[in-house]
Amino acid sequence: MKGLNVLYIVGGEGHRYGSETIAIELLSAAQANGIRYTVICANKGAVSEECERLGVKYFVAPFKFYVYKKPRSFILNCIKKAVWRVRADFLTARAVRFIENNVDIGIIDIIHTNLSRDLLGGLLSRKYGIPHVWHIQELFRAHYQLTFLRSDQINWMSDHADKFVAISNTVAKDWISEGLPTDKVCVIKNGIELSCVSQKKQFDPSAALKLVMVGHLVPAKGQEQVIRCLSRLPDEIQKNITLDCIGDGETAYKDHLRRYASECGVNMRLCGYRSDICNILKDYDIGINYSAGEGFGLTTVEYMAAGLCPIVANTGANTELVDDKENGFVFDFSSEDSFDSLITYLYNNRDVLSSVANNATKKAFSEFDVDRMCRQVFKLYDQLACMDRK
Length: 390
Known about the structure:
Oligomer: single chain
Strand order of the largest sheet: 3-2-1-5-6-8-9
Helix content: 40-55%
Shape: globular
Strand content: 15-25%
Largest sheet: 7 strands, parallel
Order of helices and strands: EHEHEEHEHEEHEHEEHHEHEHEHEHEHHH
Number of strands: 15
Mean pLDDT: 92
């Protein structure tokens, strides 16, 4: 089927991270596949800029997530939950009115929500009887330890979507175990535009070992643990290792990381948010994923595609991406000694590092190409649109 009109609801802060990167890939492939998107962005940024570049109709209608960080105090929790719920309800209701006034709902065939934390698409789907695809891009709670604002949120989600797209088998199993119906969940693994990733040409065994971590600067991503691990390495190794953290975060946490790295004698730089990640990864040797629970780990695939050696924690979906000692290395998240030992081994065995990195590139190009992901998502649109018209 060709010529589907899709209302695409994209939450997020406007940076070219994870879920918003996936949105950009789908938007870029849409026209060639007969998909006409109308995009609703929560914030201006990477997705709205891509819409302008592609000539895709978009609107910015601020709305808030239906999740929050639960404080320890019972009283503070009650107050925070109530305030955040009122704010989320108000902004979401306002976004519904904005969409009704600016989008021709009558021509929309499919609604696609890009994050599990947004309920806007579910409200519109129920109100207008439009099939709803809901992307699940993260584990249920493991990563950021967030709590739902609605007490019945899983049931509400199930009642307000026709299909949930989990980005990995791990994510699918996690959400099904928490109550999503099995028959509504399918797995479509993320992909990236591999052709735009500049590749590392060779490793210099005599040069300093360059490590990189890409992603939000938040405790759940493990930047502090990596600094602590590197501080325990022998002096002759530590002084020949650099760590760059690429991404943005709260000022207080960034200041903490700088102080901690200085105290530990670790050569660490905070490089801020970079929109040219695909061009600069080739300058590193090892890409690190120390997250508490990645639903997929898009940056890990970027490391692999760029010719870096990925080293990842045995959490989340990391082991779906990396086969230990074959196309990367997996360390025990619960044992910092595991990470220390791995860095020491790779520092002393650059030939192994180079060989494994080469295998990682091969796997990235064979399994995580963006065209595969886009075809599967667009096929799902077709299936739901056909079901709706029977």
